Amino acid sequence: LGGWPSGLRGVCFDQTAGWDFLEIPELRQALAQAGLRFDLVGFDACLMGMAEVAYELKDAGSVMVASEEVVPGDGWPYDTVLAWLAQNPSADATAFGKAIVAAYAEAYSRSSGRSEPVPAPVMAAVDLTRMADVQAKAGALADALQRGYPQLKAGIDQATWECDCFCNEPLYDYCDYCDLYDFARLVADYCRSSAEISAQAGELMAGIEAAVLEHRVAAGSYDLPHERSRGLAVWLPWGGMPEWGPYPAEKFQELINRYRALAWSRDGRWDEFLTRLVGSGESGCLFVVSSDPQDGDVDVPVDKTIALEFSERIKAGPDYSKIVLKDAEGRKVSIKKKIAGSTLFIGPARELKYGTEYTVVVPRNAVKSYSNAYLAADFALTFATEPPDVEPPEVVATEPAGWSENVPLNVTIRLQYSEPVFKGPKYLKIQLCDEGGGKVSLSAKIVENVLEVRPKKRLKPWTCYTLTVPQGALKDKAGNLAESFELSFTTGG
Length: 493
Hints:
Elements: E1 11-14, E2 20-22, H1 24-33, E3 38-42, H2 51-56, E4 61-66, H3 78-87, H4 93-107, E5 122-127, H5 131-147, H6 153-162, E6 165-166, E7 177-179, H7 180-190, H8 195-211, E8 212-217, E9 233-235, H9 249-259, H10 263-266, H11 270-279, E10 285-286, E11 288-292, E12 306-310, E13 314-316, E14 324-327, E15 335-340, E16 343-348, E17 357-362, E18 367-369, E19 374-375, E20 379-384, E21 395-399, E22 404-407, E23 413-417, E24 422-423, E25 431-434, E26 439-440, E27 442-447, E28 450-455, E29 464-469, E30 474-475, E31 485-491
Parallel strand pairs: 3-4, 10-19, 22-31
Antiparallel strand pairs: 1-2, 4-5, 5-8, 6-7, 7-9, 11-12, 12-16, 13-18, 14-17, 15-16, 17-20, 21-23, 23-28, 24-30, 25-26, 25-29, 27-28, 29-31
Helix pairs in contact: 3-4, 5-8, 5-11, 6-7, 7-8, 9-11
């Protein structure tokens, strides 16, 4: 895969179609549609050697080969790479990936005799099957770092500024990429007073060492040897660049909203750490740290209350009344709003429609911190509700079990359903009869997904009883009526 990428922004830029490109989630979808798992996914493109990219493609292939740095215009040395493959036709993806890394490093080292200036060559082969472990350990470190605020802020900032960074040009889309291993190493050192941070950083470094199959750095024409890199970069705003001052709040809000579309963010908490990292600086702006649901979520319950957690405690701002929830056609939905600490809750006044896309918009001045900080820009979150429920509730367990014997005379009968149930039109038709057809006076109640039936008098000994719940006696939240059900048992003495 080649093109003129911008790391996390995308790859495969098409110069003939207005520079259209594949965003990273689109790349995952395209590879998935091929209907097979690739042995090796290689990027002859700049800045693609990132943990976020590798995690996005963890189910698409076995090995990823990519560079944390920019790649020279000549690209991979295909003559050497293909010659090796021709000589080793039975090689597996791991061996081939290592060969590509070695060939690339040799082709662009100073000893290669190239006259034109090139960046220090950096290339790695990554075991994609280990990326779930790396992502989980990065999330655990992110949690520990957030708990370290504000006491350890100075150490976390110092680690951010000193870590090995790539393509550090200010205000490019996702320009501040830093080596994840180096950041973990530095933060363990600068926050060594925290046993938790040191331990989680060590776990992450071990996970990266296990995931990176081969990593080469050779001295290029520039004085950027990246000796501390280990093969996987990560987005770390202002990493290696403290002289540029506070991160522009509006730019960060735009980028973090796009970043949350990545599986790395959706399945973990690195984005929450980044929001805390940038929001704890001197930008003077609020940030949305996390949301439930997340942007792009599907199968959201129709009665879901949206929760937005901000970087500080908040209160209503001048545009609080302008917070809206609307469907895909722009029709507004009646909502209820509440603020509790640093969280804004937005709930529909009545259930949303099934299988429908909705967007909540929080204007820039809708909420403010107690230090009068506002959002840098409007915040928007889009999600889709769950599809219509057409399945009726089913009995999944009973107490007593069907055809049980020696059942106590004071038994309470319980039917457990597959989902919460409610009274249906034939609820009063529920009956308990003995073997001769005589009806037993009873009381019934529903507790979540359980129907409880209690006889008002002790049952007769050594008698067979049958509980009948007719069709329509119970229904689920969507109104689907449960089928009829019978349960027979025999009492003891």
